[in-house]
Structures are given as C-alpha cells and as structure tokens.
Amino acid sequence: MSDEKQIVKILQGNEACVEGALLAGIRFFAGYPITPASEIAEGMARRLPKIDGKFMQMEDEIASMAAVIGASLTGLKAMTASSGPGICLKQENIGFAAIGEIPCVIVNAQRGGPSTGLPTKPSQGDVMQARWGTHGDHPMIALAPSDVNEILEITVKAVNFSEKYRTPVMLLLDEVIAHMREKVNIPSREQLEIIDRKKTNVKKDEFLPFKADEDMVPPMADFGSGYRYHVTGLVHNEKGYPTSDAEEIDKFLRRLSNKVELNKKDIVIKEEYSLDDAKIAIVAYGSVARAAQRTVKLAREKGIKVGLLKLITLWPFDDDLINQLASQVDLIVVPEMNLGQMVREVQRAAQGKSRVISYTRIDGDLINPIEILEKIEEEMSQ
Amino acid sequence: MKNVIEKYIRKEMFPHIWCPGCGNGIVLGALIRAIDSLGWEKDEVAMVSGIGCSSRITGYVDFNTMNTTHGRALPFATGIKMSNPKLKVIAVMGDGDCAAIGGNHFIHAARRNIDITAVIINNMIYGMTGGQYSPMTPTGKFGSTAPYGNIDQNFDLSALAASAGASYVARSSIYNPNQGTRFIKKALSKKGFSVVEIISDCPISYGRMNKLRTPVKMMEWIKSISVPKKTWEKLSVEEKKDKIPMGEFLDICIPEYTDKYKEVCAIAQEGGGNE
C-alpha cells in the first residue's frame, strides 16, 4: 500500500467496520437496533443513501437477515449486524443463506450472554454459536479481528470470502473493540483486493444454478438478469429443485461443507509472534489476542520463551496448524472470554502432543496481559 | 386457456405435491392468468414464498423464484424489491405462514407500503403438518391440536392489512376464481403493498376433522359462508358470525416505499438531513 493515498482517522471499531464494508462493496444493509452493534446500522443509514446504496431498518432481526439474502440475490453485496440475542434470531435464515449459497456478511459484536446477559460488556461467548448456531451440517466462515484497524481490513476479507465462496460469513467483534476508538488507516479501493462473486456466462436455457465449478462454488446469476431459477431451503439438485435422491443429497451436502473446509489454505488467516523458539504458546483471538501479545513481551523479559498464535479465522478451524504447534511446544494456553470454547478445538487438534490448558474470564472484564502470564508461571511451577 | 398456464409452468417439477381437491391449483391458475393478462415478462417477475403446501407454488412457476423459511416470505421479498425496484415482486403465503409465524412481517410490509403483492391462500388450517389449528381456524372448529374445538378467536387478515397501511386489499375464494383473478390483477397493477386473500379448502386436514371430507362439500361450505361485502355490511352482528365478507376493502394511492427511499438518497446526496 502506498502511504500517500491513505487517509488516517480516529474511528470506533463499529465505524471502521462500516468503512471496510463500503470499501468492499457492500451496498445493502438491513438491521435492527441492538447494543453494542447499533453504530454499524447508524453509519450505514448515513452513508449508503449517499452512494445509492440501500439501508433498511427492519421489524426484527429475522427480517433483517431475510432482507439481506433477498438483496444479495439481486446482485448487491449485503450485510447485517447484531449481537448475541439478535444473532440467535438470525440463525434460521443464516441456515437458508448457507443452503441457498447466497453471499452475505453477519457482524456479531459479542456481548455477555446467555440471553440479555451483559449488553455493555465484552465476551467471546458466541464462538461456538457462530459455527453451529444454525441447525444441520453447514459451512461457516468466521473471522475475529483484534483491534480497530484490523476490523477494517478483516471486514473487507469477510465480504470477499462471502462472495468468493457464496456463503454467509460471520465477523466476530466484541463490545470492547466495537466501541474502542483507535487510529485507522483507510485505504483507497484501488489499494485493496476486492472480490466479486462469479457470474454465470452460459446460455440461459443451459443454466444450472447449483452446478459447481472445480472450486466447488457454482457461478451465480442475479434475479432479474434473465436467468430464471429457483432458490429453496430444501436440499436441492443442480437445477435448484428439491430432491429426495440419496445420491444427490449426499453429493450436495458434502460439496456445501467442502467448499469451505477444503479451501482452508485460502481462508485461514493467522499471525504468529515469537513462536520460532517458543516452548510455551498462547493461542488467542479477538481482543484477548492483543493482551496476549503483551504477555509474550512480559514473559520474554523474564526469560520465559512464550510465543503467540493469533487466530483471525476461527472457522474453518485449522487442525494442522495447531497440531504442528503442539509438536513444537510443551504447553499451549488458550485464554478466552468464555468458559473455554475454542480450547476444545485446540485440545482436539493437538492430539495430546502438548499440554493444552484453558484460562477463562466471564465477569465482563477484559483479560489482561499479566493474568495470562501468571497463569503460565503457575503452570510452569507445577 | 391451456397454453396460458403451460407458458408459465415448470413442467419438470411435476407431479406436484398437492392432494386431490386442493385449492392451491385454483389460486395458482388465477395468479398465472392475472400475470399473463398484464403482459409481464417472466424475467421481471420475482415470486417468493414461505413454508407450507401453498408455498410450494414458487417451485412450479417459471419466474425468479424463492421458497424461503416459515413466515418470512415478505422480508425476503422486501430485500429483493428494495434492491431492484424494477422487479415485480409477489409473495405467496398460507394462513399459518402469514398470520401466525409471519404476522409481524405482514404488518410491517403493509406499514411500509412497499410495492409487493401478497397473495394469501387461507385454508384455515396447517395442512402440510397434518391439520393443526391456525390463527384463521374459526372458533369452535376442530383441528388435530384442537380435538375438543378451537377456543382461539380467528381474525380478519384483510382488515388487519388495511389498518396496517396497505394500498389495496381484497378477498375472494376458490369458489369464485374469476373474481380472484380480477382482484389479483388489480393488486399486481397497484403501486404499493397490495393484499389478496383467497379463502381455500383443505379436504384432507380441515375437511376431515370438520365433517367436510370431500372437495365438493368444502366448496359448498365456502360458498355458504361467503357474502359480498355490501351484503355483509347490512347484516346484524349475529348474522355476521360464521360469514366472511368478499370483495375489495381498500384501494387507495399513497406514497410507496422504494419511491420514498429515492427521495432519501436525493436528500443525502445534496448534503441534507440532520448532519
């Protein structure tokens, strides 16, 4: 990126999300008021009409998700944003987006749960909900940035992945990074890689709306473009018609999941800090990863060889990455603002090659660098 | 007439799932005839449905079609219309779909007065799941979940739509498909949210539990409860019980949502608003 074209601003995390989304080409937003995500809807309400984009405040979260899917089918890049209670309601139609292979982005500014929970406090309690919140086997991409600048960057990636893989993508923020203000570099559109969905170019009477290319993703056609087809939440064949044929069902559902699982190399985004010589690794994501980065520095000042694997892509989960890490280190610490959700994935992927321990906080306060260090020292003394 | 229907049908989807004697086909016929009489191109029509027997209609017609989640046809349709106002958007729903699980969406689509035509096939029962009572099942009638008689009050969907802000509201029945076709045509031509409720039958679920086991008996029953709007207005409260008024209840011209949104864009682009 060349520096001259970049605008630097102090932005709130939710505002950075709006900037990233608009840069990535989001032109439809439907939402419903909820703390701590409302600033995203407010930003969209202000910005979208200026660029002939569409903003709607719907009657509820379910309708917001539905409207986003309808909009995406006409060819607009579409997004919604909410928090835990609202995400629960959206799950029904997130499943529809998954089975209908309709690109869309769902922002979840996580707050404490369950239920109304802690509306103004941060949490990472929706990590498993992001993966399995809607019923049945389905693909899911979930990304978790850890600071405001990264929110902008990762929002662009979320939109890109949804378009590229024709699937719903969840962007997991938390109350702290959603509301915090930091310096943000706003790139120009030309400085970014923007991905648009593949469009079909076959003859209209030869169009099979759910026939995938080699990358497992079917090219799409906009409603109204002359390719008439059927979209359904029922399991369907390549024509888009409901099927009860076992072979067709199996083929379809496996492709649906595999288009994400088998493209992990492209989708998994991670960062590594001081892992080369590390004997102890912290695996963290979201705002906790930021604290963990500081823990690495503090530990190394004390001569403890700690490194950090920061996961930005949480789903699909990269088993190999963790397995490799587990062969290198003696101990993996997974600090989370929940009662230990991702640590189960880490334990599973580590296959016993290293010890994996959980450090959790669910009191609505952030995890700070010193407490992670204290946990490490406590483990070392045992 | 045969060719009119065939022009719009996805024959490869047949046989359809509907039972013999079901009214859904009559409504589908009325819908197709209304669309055909307007001379619309198939490419410019988007038809969206929810869940239930009636919602399978979208699979059988050669438009841009979508069979969505239960009760949600209208918000999906809203997203389509808002994003591409050139499309003619039609939502087809059943009574459980529209009045129960989708009731809130129905009210708010009417409140926005967005240019969508809602066709509600009201057979007063959940047919697909086996005859559970719906919000439209008359009080005292039977359903598989009302084996001792339904104690809920049913309500007037057309009156609801009219009071919620729609532009056009009419009710007909499968006993009178020509009237239904005429009302649907008017609704489709209306700029704004338009509603046509069609009283339909379900001999298998509703009829079986309410001594109307055959399609003919159901048709006769629908005929017996139908009263033209003007006649209905003159009836006493007691006489109105067990009768349903048929006709056009509302036909007004008020600003439409996607038009109003264009004004929002203009204000935003001129630097207006509260900034």
Please describe the structure with a list of short key phrases separated by commas or semicolons.
heterodimer; A: 382 residues; alpha/beta; Rossmann fold; 2 domains; eight-stranded mixed β-sheet; five-stranded mixed β-sheet; 13 helices; 16 strands; B: 275 residues; two-stranded antiparallel ribbon; 10 strands
Account of the protein in words:
The complex is a heterodimer of chains A (382) and B (275). Chain A has two domains: 189 residues, 3-Layer(aba) Sandwich (Rossmann fold), CATH 3.40.50.970; 113 residues, Rossmann fold (3-Layer(aba) Sandwich). With 382 residues, chain A is of the alpha/beta class. In chain A, 39% of the residues lie in helices and 22% in strands. The radius of gyration of chain A is 21 Å and the shape is globular. In chain A, strands 2, 3, 4, 5, 6, 7, 8 and 14 form an eight-stranded mixed sheet that branches. In chain A, strands 11-13-12-15-16 form a five-stranded mixed sheet, with helices on both faces. By secondary structure, chain B is an alpha/beta fold. Chain B has one domain: Thiamin diphosphate (ThDP)-binding fold, Pyr/PP domains (Rossmann fold, 3-Layer(aba) Sandwich). Chain B is globular and about 65 Å long. The chains are: A alpha/beta (382), B alpha/beta (275). Strand 10 of chain A pairs parallel with strand 2 of chain B, so a sheet runs across the interface.
